[in-house]
Amino acid sequence: MKIIRNIGLTIFLICFAVFLSLPFLGKYKLTEKTFTENFSDVNQQKVLKPALKDVFDKEYNSNVAFFNDYNKAFDDANKDFRDKKEWDKVINDNKILDITKSSSIGFVKDNSTLLFIICFLISALGGIMYMVPALFIKPVAGIKNDYIFKRGITSRGIIAFCFAAFLIIFYIFLYQKPAYLSNWVLLMDGLSNTLTGGNSSQWFLYGFLYCLVMSVMSVRMYIKYRNNNYQLLRTTSVLFFQIAFAFMIPNILTNLQLPSMDFKNIWPLDYTFFFDYRLTELTSNGMLGYWMLGWGIFLIIVGVPVMVYFFGKRWYCSWVCGCGGLAETLGDPFRQLSDKSLKAWKFERIIVHSVLVFAVVMTIAVLYTFFTGSPKLLGIDTYSIRQTYSFGIGFMFAGAIGTGFYPVMGSRVWCRFGCPLAAYLGIVQRFKSRFRITTNGAQCISCGNCSTYCEMGIDVRAYAQNGENIIRSSCVGCGICAAVCPRGVLKLENLAEEGRFDAYIRPEEKAF
Ligand code: SF4
Ligand code: SF4
After folding, report:
1. Which of 439, 443, 444 to mutate to test the pocket of ligand 2 (most atoms within 8 A of CB)?
2. Ligand 2 contacts CB of residue 349 (under 6 A)
3. What kind of architecture, by CATH, is found in domain 433-510?
4. Ligand 1 atom 4 nearest Cα
5. Which residues pair with 490 in a beta bridge?
6. Sign of the CA dihedral 378, 380, 385, 387?
7. What is the pLDDT of residues 129-164, one digit of tens each?
8. Is the model's pLDDT at 511 over the cut of 80?
């Protein structure tokens, strides 16, 4: 079994090395024809083509060399506009990813299908081969977390910091410099054409990688928590919602030339939902568009409070949400790293509710401009508010920090400190919900497993020892505390509201 494990790891590492090398491979040659096809604006072409004349038909051995010349040509073309402060005429190079992909020649372009198989399919197989033997090595009951504080990757060792750096750098390039990832995006064109009817973007690549990583890490979840039905169902649920709702359906809608929508992504997590271009797209697509708009609003106003009332925020955070799904699969090996201190709890409450307020203010500003046409609200440019939110929260917090910090601060950094929807769900859960974790304090042996593995940094043991119900707004109802408790002290329940704030005595205990 150990051999299979080692072979799997070797296969995965080789494939991963190939994947990492791709942005540095390949050659680039931009032709005037390719450029014309990507820049449809004839007036912009007239300005850009003379500046790009030295770039056309020149062969570059690396994307860095290509970008140097290409960006310099753009700077030259825009110089006059900038000098004259004619900002509306400055040409944006937002086509650079498409142009880089179209300019790619040589090894990567010629072997894209083979590289797709190596980088994604064989690497996934290697990862699964590494995990499956765990089923047979020690077939004992219970959840194994052996050596979790001794392995560098799961206990903030050097390898964990390297992994964190990789994730953060990946997000920076994905959001800010996607053209550097063009060779990765290129590999996705075949699948993208089948699903969406068009070539791949960096977001298609991201969606695919998200699903692939969750799928592989779900195998680990199925093995690790194989004796716990709640965890098996929950893992299946997040995987289903990610693949079907976040990836397949929006891409198929794009193929049908309908507005693309992730039907489970709720504002304010989906902070672009009320942006002008989304509203315009929905309202110009007839009944279906209006239905989609209505569905999104229904979820915010009715769906969230009603579902949280009956089931707590777990229905979303641990069963449906994509961010939660990644945290519960890729992030599971890091859940013990969450900060349990009182200071972190205070910090968490301030930050997460501030982000919620920011999201509300930003959305009001955006809607004000949409309905009135005025670009300013109280003298502030609404576009700049929206840009600040998109950069600070959408990219930095949710992406780079939220996922990049998994190996350092645990799996729910974004959900705990940054997600405005989690803050909204949490307020309802705290004050108007049937959900709670009941604790049978007399049975607690103070082992601390529950607190250790709570990804939201809740000191579950303290509640258990006091026999208190856990009704914390941050609890995502993942159920891991109950799963790892050796004494069956904890139980996730949806009971009548009465007595929620008191210690709950289970019927079976009342008999004694
Ligand atoms: S208290 Fe338990 S159910 Fe709630 S987030 Fe922590 S581990 Fe998950
Ligand atoms: S895991 Fe169970 S027994 Fe251990 S401290 Fe928590 S509630 Fe008590």
Report:
1. 444
2. no
3. 2-Layer Sandwich (3.30)
4. 475
5. 439
6. positive
7. 999 988 886 656 778 898 999 999 999 999 999 999
8. no
